[in-house]
Amino acid sequence: MPPSSPRWPLLLAAAVLWCSSLLAAAPSAAAKVHHHTWDIEYQYKSLDCFRKLAVTINGEAPGPTIRATRGDTVVVTVRNNLGTENTGIHWHGIRQIGSPWADGTVGVTQCPILPGETFTYRFVVDRAGTYLYHAHYGMQRVAGLDGMIVVSEPDGVVEPFAYDQEHTVLLMDWWNTSVYEQAVGLASDPLVFVTEPQSLLINGRGRSNYCSPAAPLPTLFTAAPGKTYRLRIGSLTSLSSLSFQIEGHSMTVVEADGHYVKPFVVRTLFLYSGETYSVLLKADQDPSRNYWAASNVVGRKRQTPSGLAILSYAAGNDPPRAPPTEQQPVPPAWDDVAPRKEQSRAIVAHPDHAVPAPPAADRTLLLLNTQNRIDNHLRWAINGVSLRFPATPYLVSMKRGLRGAYEQRPPADAYDYRGYDISSPPTANGTVASAVYRLALGSVVDVVLQNAAMPNGKNETHPWHLHGHDFWVLGYGDGKFDPERDTGRFNLRDPVMKNTVPLYPMGWTAVRFVADNPGVWLFHCHIEAHVYMGMGVVFEEGVDRVARLPTSIMGCGRSRGLP
Ligand SMILES: *[C@@H]1O[C@H](CO)[C@@H](O)[C@H](O)[C@H]1NC(C)=O
Ligand SMILES: *[C@@H]1O[C@H](CO)[C@@H](O)[C@H](O)[C@H]1NC(C)=O
Ligand SMILES: *[C@@H]1O[C@H](CO)[C@@H](O)[C@H](O)[C@H]1NC(C)=O
Ligand SMILES: [Cu+2]
């Protein structure tokens, strides 16, 4: 389907006007520039009682929280002191409008930052909300190069909820093995999977089976009775989907991936890797005792101890770090997918902050998610194509017309959705390619992710993350997506915008976005092992409109020596 008529640009213009009326509240003269200099190096860390190498930022793992106000510019100078390892840092949820070379995706938007080299990221944070950053080179995120970004509204701009104080809560999973042990295992024949994590971290601290029972627990925060707290919660797990609970307290979800949502109350919040939420928590329980905060694996058979921290009350009887006398909260059953789907369906736009979705798509991509056998190895493949980044970053090769630098043949827009049996293990072999979907600038694109049985008959949840954009979440369904039947059932009334969305076992997820950000953008499963095994696609849009590229992103493959 070729991109059609200029029907959408009119709506787009209306949305831009609407947005700029909001922006008018923030005088740009007040915008600040925040400079950070980060030394990236390996250090021994005992985040969960097991001492191992972690990638640190100025000695910290996870790294510091970046704080800014909407409209500000963030400048991060990264010095790679890893000695023998490349790096690159992605600013997760920041759309990089006008700065596509600062997305930090090695192989897509830049060459790797070599050991001993310094690279400067410079970008505008154009929307308030809770975002993340993390390594985007190989499986390096497994080693802990990550953190959070908090973008506040300028003074005088009122959010659709109120609170007294805020805290960040970064959730991770953690292994006793290195990035290399994991990556080499995945590429081996027979494949050696990464195993379940040894621990779950809350703000960088956790308890593996290596801990003595007396090891102290981290404090989530100390509450003052009666006050309301905003918790900005993000998941940067490498493998696990999580539940998060705070014993005795309910949480009101008010923000998802930087967008205000119609508030809803949960006892258990489910999070997929790459997602962020703001929840409001009222300190309305008995202040004399402490409470458990717990994260647990869901969606995979649970073999990892709970991630634990303590919520205490100021001037309570229990010492702040004393384990609560009560039992830990009972986590949801790992294989009960119904409440997770229910939460996904509950996330809709806040009525006063909804950005209307365009009414129809110019192009629809139907993307089959499974593993295929390729040269006798199992790799994740999308419509039979397993993504491998070329030696030259796409942004450079496309902007400079280096045609031989990547696969010229585009991948298929759809799999054989009439003939394919999603409940049977795949029989076809796949291919490895660096192919790209080229999208018409300004066109409206629907992507329907279709989950299907894996060769081993298992099923998994995949969190899909889009760079450079937010998408409207139009719907989730069980079984096989049927364009004739299901397109008409999309939620166009109040779809939320997000940048990361789960694809549930044996189901489909539909999203819509406008290809209006000139650049080259990765769309991929946020599980490190999966994207490492090819689970992603690349979108190009309006690359000819991208301003002159900084030479600092070049230097590898065929971009070596380009002026
Ligand atoms: C990592 O932990 C697992 C159990 O959780 C254990 O079987 C394995 O031997 C450990 N590996 C190392 C390198 O300590
Ligand atoms: C897939 O590849 C294997 C060899 O790697 C071959 O034996 C088999 O016939 C191929 N299957 C199909 C359906 O082409
Ligand atoms: C997914 O796998 C789990 C256990 O491995 C099983 O209980 C469940 O029925 C499966 N779900 C689907 C939709 O196949
Ligand atoms: Cu995945």
TrEMBL record:
Belongs to the multicopper oxidase family. It catalyses: 4 L-ascorbate + O2 = 4 monodehydro-L-ascorbate radical + 2 H2O. InterPro entries: Cu-oxidase-like_N, Cu-oxidase_2nd, Cu-oxidase_C, Cu-oxidase_fam, Cu_oxidase_CS, Cu_oxidase_Cu_BS, Cupredoxin, CuRO_3_AAO. The keyword Transferase does not apply. This is L-ascorbate oxidase. One of its GO terms (molecular function) is L-ascorbate oxidase activity. SUPFAM superfamilies: Cupredoxins. Pfam families: Cu-oxidase (PF00394), Cu-oxidase_2 (PF07731), Cu-oxidase_3 (PF07732). Transmembrane segments: none annotated. GO terms for cellular component: extracellular region. Residues 1-24 form the signal peptide. NCBIfam families: ascorbase. Residues 41-154, 166-314, 430-542 form the Plastocyanin-like domain. Its EC number is 1.10.3.3. Dimer. The lineage of its organism: Eukaryota, Viridiplantae, Streptophyta, Embryophyta, Tracheophyta. Its main location: secreted. Its cofactor is Cu cation. Residues 316-342 are annotated as: Disordered. Gene3D superfamilies: Cupredoxins - blue copper proteins (2.60.40.420). Keywords: Copper, Disulfide bond, Metal-binding, Oxidoreductase, Repeat, Secreted, Signal. It comes from Paspalum notatum var. saurae. It is found in: Secreted. It comes from the Eukaryota.
